[in-house]
Design brief:
Layout lengths: L5 E6 L5 H14 L4 E7 L2 E2 L4 E2 L4 H11 L6 E7 L1 H7 L20 H4 L4 E5 L3 E3 L4 H4 L8 E5 L12 E9 H7 L1 H11 L5 H9 L3 E3 L17 E3 L3 E3 L5 E3 L6 H8 L5 H10 L12 H5 L10
Parallel strand pairs: 1-2, 1-6, 2-5, 8-10
Antiparallel strand pairs: 3-4, 6-9, 7-11, 8-9, 12-13
Helix pairs in contact: 1-10, 7-8
């Protein structure tokens, strides 16, 4: 068992805070352990993408909401902008179908002090405690991850999804894995840039059960982390589909699950949409959901 709080890393801009809020609603419910949350963020303007860094006001909202009780959460935001511009600004992978923010996780070993952390994409929600994942022994590995459910069809065997990673940051610093990955991304055009770079360069990885990063459609009993990643619909013809957790109607249609509806209801009730320049969803969507029972809250 790992002592101390669980360290969680997110990477993104202000737009991702809604996803983090949804994720943390489920973490707060299931994980009975203190949590430290670290945002890797920046303000960026590229040909294809514009984003603004997470602000102190954003952190204040999250601290006020999650920073109390028996298992409080702490929050910090780290500006990766200067380091990003120096190493990856203007390179080919800055304007792929993925935002530049996916690349920020590669800077975690340089900018954060802890030796162990969970990296989570903002489009995940939990349905049980994170402690079993946190307690997996990765002392002999650089990281642990789950096979990528789409990449497995055409990528090399063992290709893992980087949306959920259990990181041995101490080992990564010693092997320079993420430093090498930054250089690789800067010099190779890739469809899934940092994910592919890390997969190609990692020497010591532990592949873990799919329940820790369940990426397929529907909902499976025993799931610890549900990842609302891109999925394949095979009929009537093969095609990609996706729905992020904050798009509830699309989640119901694409992922065929209502498991997280109580948390969606809390999100609609408590998230400060105006603060983030967002319109509150329609009353039709809100009224279709039921707030959690006392047992779920």
């Amino acid at each position: 068992m790992n002592e101390g709080p669980i360290e969680i890393i997110f990477a993104g801009d202000r737009k991702m805070v809604k996803g983090v809020f949804l994720c943390l609603l489920t973490v707060a419910h299931y994980t009975k352990k203190a949590v430290n949350v670290h945002f890797l963020t920046m303000t960026v303007r590229t040909k294809k993408f514009k984003g603004d860094a997470v602000t102190e006001e954003d952190l204040a909202f999250l601290k006020n909401y999650f920073g109390h009780g028996e298992y409080p959460m702490t929050f910090e935001a780290v500006d990766v902008g200067p380091l990003y511009k120096k190493t990856l600004g203007g390179t080919a992978n800055e304007n792929t179908g993925f935002t530049p923010y996916t690349l920020l996780r590669l800077f975690a070993p340089d900018l954060l002090k802890m030796d162990h952390a969970l990296y989570l994409d903002a489009d995940i929600m939990t349905s049980s405690s994170l402690e079993p994942l946190w307690d997996i022994d990765i002392s002999d590995y650089e990281l642990a991850g789950v096979i990528d459910h789409i990449g497995k069809y055409w990528m090399p065997k063992g290709y893992f999804n980087a949306g959920v990673m259990d990181l041995n940051l101490k080992a990564i610093r010693e092997s320079h894995l993420f430093e090498k990955s930054i250089v690789y991304v800067a010099h190779h055009f890739l469809f899934m840039p940092d994910q592919t770079a890390v997969n190609r360069l990692v020497k010591k990885k532990l592949l873990i059960e799919a329940k820790y990063n369940e990426q397929e459609r529907g909902y499976k009993d025993g799931t610890v982390i549900k990842h609302f990643s891109q999925v394949i619909k095979w009929f009537p013809f093969p095609r990609f589909a996706k729905a992020k957790p904050w798009d509830v109607e699309a989640v119901h249609k694409t992922y065929k699950t209502h498991v997280f509806d109580p948390y969606f209801a809390v999100y609609f009730r408590d998230f400060p949409f105006e603060q983030f320049g967002m319109n509150k969803p329609s009353q039709d969507v809100i009224s279709s959901l039921v707030l959690p029972t006392k047992e779920q809250a």
